[in-house]
């Protein structure tokens, strides 16, 4: 058994929990490695994944909030190493509560006393003006195409699996997974969607129209976002799971589809999706 511990570098509680966990794993003779969250560029994700040798681990323990969980998912990528998230942050919809203590939770996971869930991810291709794919990204939550540095509204066309859907002007667009439906997509007016849903959720951001609606696609659909109508002074910004993407070239189109590789999430004392919604969004004081 080999465990990777990823902790939020800015969270003292996560650091203390990692020290407790390391002591426990040492006492059980279980090998482990620790690392902290860090900014990840398009190039550095692969470098860090290779340096850590992600496929060599049997489980990842993510100590922080939802942001740390998203960071962990990016590092795991296509390798399907299960991730056990334990909440030491503010919003903890993707992670388990830490109230039982980090050691009992990890011990339960090692004993197989957890629920294993496969969450759909996004595969994102960035295409330049020569119609070449210059970069591909992976997302557990969402892709957000938004207004650029100058703050001007952007124009874009949307096609789904080759069919023209609409032309739009506005602040942008979110393409989300079911997991991401509780994040940016929800704030933009999108629906809460069960994690069993494998399609894409397409949510316009402040569209300059009266007719815009969220679209739920099939799991096999490809969403194409055409940005060609924007001038160089009206460039869009691209965010993948909340992190700004800065490509080397101007982007003409973005293609989004369901990835063939899910993220495997481990749930401790899982009460189900709808209980999590109630506890996270509707509890007193939220």
Automatic annotation (TrEMBL):
It catalyses: NAD(+) + ATP = ADP + NADP(+) + H(+). One of its GO terms (cellular component) is cytoplasm. Keywords: ATP-binding, Cytoplasm, Kinase, NAD, NADP, Nucleotide-binding, Transferase. The gene is nadK. HAMAP family: NAD_kinase (MF_00361). It is found in: Cytoplasm. GO terms for molecular function: ATP binding; metal ion binding; NAD binding; NAD+ kinase activity. The lineage of its organism: Bacteria, Bacillati, Actinomycetota, Coriobacteriia, Eggerthellales. Belongs to the NAD kinase family. This is NAD kinase.
